[in-house]
Design goal:
Blueprint: E1 5-10, H1 33-48, E2 52-57, H2 68-71, H3 73-79
Parallel strand pairs: 1-2
Length: 82
């Protein structure tokens, strides 16, 4: 089967020293074990898969807990939760 995979990764694959937004073409340089493990996962996926999407996000979203939406006043207002 030729089914594409969508892998959720992290911006922790970068060292955070760049003064402009990162692009998919920037070199990686993880500074901790979490970033190293996520980068290893990305590389493995690129090695074994023919079709894939790697999404690097800095913060996941959810209904509960500490997340972007719960810490962003504008997002809370739009959702009706103040």
């Amino acid at each position: 089967m030729n089914i594409p995979l969508c892998h959720i990764s992290t911006d922790y694959v970068f060292d955070g020293t760049k003064s402009t937004p990162y692009t998919p073409f920037d070199g990686t340089n993880p500074i901790n074990t979490y970033g190293e493990s996520k980068l290893a996962g990305e590389k493995y996926i690129q090695w074994i898969m023919n079709e894939f999407y790697i999404v690097r996000t800095s913060w996941l979203y959810g209904k509960h807990g500490n997340n972007f939406a719960s810490n962003n006043p504008e997002a809370r207002e739009r959702s009706g939760r103040s």
